TrEMBL record:
It comes from Chryseobacterium ureilyticum. This is Protein N-acetyltransferase, RimJ/RimL family. It comes from the Bacteria. Gene3D superfamilies: 3.40.630.30. Coiled coil: none annotated. SUPFAM superfamilies: Acyl-CoA N-acyltransferases (Nat) (SSF55729). GO terms for molecular function: acyltransferase activity, transferring groups other than amino-acyl groups. Residues 10-167 form the N-acetyltransferase domain.
């Protein structure tokens, strides 16, 4: 298990196949995946296969990371950066179990990810993609300093892209 980041409450580490049960459970909640465009895994084996084949760390040097509570060591969800080679852009994303919503975890973990992206990886820009109905995630992106950039088609829904340049990043 490779630790990537640490905050006051959280530890962010690389996802592993040992996360398959939690990863599967996270996507089973329709409220969690409502605005993601993703579907749930059919079973734990599908989640295991996804994680086994997850190559972002090797290919890009970063990716989505497991978010772990420092005190309880509980898997809370994931957060991280994802590089899209076809668009030559990196996005910030996060997903948490519903019982952990509204506790500032997305903002706390995503702030650490942006700091890492701009200071360690020397990224020039990070974007956030969100469905227009996903007010909670829009608010997180705004708290992070991302500003509205443009609209796009998000799997048949009105999507919004928020962005922040390295030069505009302030911790």
């Amino acid at each position: 298990m490779k630790k990537i980041l640490e905050t006051d409450r959280l530890l962010l580490r690389e996802l592993t196949v040992e996360d398959a049960i939690n990863f599967c459970k996270l996507n089973e909640n329709p409220n969690v995946i409502r605005y993601t465009g993703d579907s749930s895994f059919k079973n734990i084996e599908d989640a295991y296969t996804f994680l086994k084949n997850y190559k972002d760390y090797k290919v890009n040097g970063y990716g989505r990371w497991a978010v772990i509570d420092q005190l309880s060591h509980e898997f809370l969800g994931w957060c991280g950066l994802k590089y899209d080679r076809s668009k030559n852009e990196t996005d910030i994303g996060f997903r948490f179990f519903e019982e952990h919503w509204n506790k500032g975890l997305a903002t706390e973990s995503a702030t650490a990810c942006l700091k890492y992206g701009f200071e360690q990886l020397r990224l020039e820009k990070v974007i956030g993609r969100v469905m227009s109905e996903n007010i909670a995630s829009i608010m997180v992106l705004q708290k992070l300093g991302l500003t509205f950039n443009k609209e796009f088609d998000f799997d048949g829904h009105k999507g919004l892209i928020y962005a922040i340049q390295q030069a505009d990043w302030q911790v």
